[in-house]
């Protein structure tokens, strides 16, 4: 069982506060399952004797299959942010599919899941509560991972070449900070814009424009958390915005507060 470096991913808001409240582990899938799955993740917390803590995330463009006591399910990409209330003691085990990686299991546009959650019964024909109890009762991370891999292996679809194509495009958007508009992706890939939009609707669940926006706001939040954002004009220019008012509107529409309110949060 290989562990990925346990660094909080971008998109976890106020990460310096969050890392004092919970721990995050990420585990590699097997080679075959790795065609569809980005990684497994486990969040643990112990806030006994402390106030509950709400962790907010700017969602990545990934479907997650989550096992948590009384709240398990298959979660589509959140439209804005997603939040999770941590209280007392607990843990969550999750399967993070690659962008496009859940479509071969679902065999329906992933956009039908966007902003929502469904039970395992609807995709895998398995009782959600029963599998939740089995996975969360395992003695260690490796045992939980084995059960998850058994589930996916038993329902393994054929590899869809569009899954790898979409995952590569999303990774390019994430890593190439010069990509600021959908037209930039069209230029780099040579794909027709409308074809790309249809593919993202079917395989990812959100538009290419939304994916670009999410990753740029991930960058903004990280810089603010680390105290390296500078003024809003400089930050907006660095993120590819034409003016800082556009950046501020985007940030507020997704995060729910202005950049200044976010930066002042302690």
UniProtKB/TrEMBL annotation:
Alphabetized UniProt keyword annotations: DNA-binding, Transcription, Transcription regulation
SMART domains registered for this protein in UniProt: HTH_ARAC
Cross-referenced InterPro entries: AraC_XylS_family_regulators (IPR050204), DUF6597 (IPR046532), Homeodomain-like_sf (IPR009057), HTH_AraC (IPR018060)
Any one GO MF annotation of this record: DNA-binding transcription factor activity
Domain of life: Bacteria
SUPFAM superfamilies linked: Homeodomain-like
Domain named HTH araC/xylS-type: residues: 163-265
Protein name as annotated: Transcriptional regulator
Lineage per the UniProt record: Bacteria, Bacillati, Bacillota, Bacilli, Bacillales
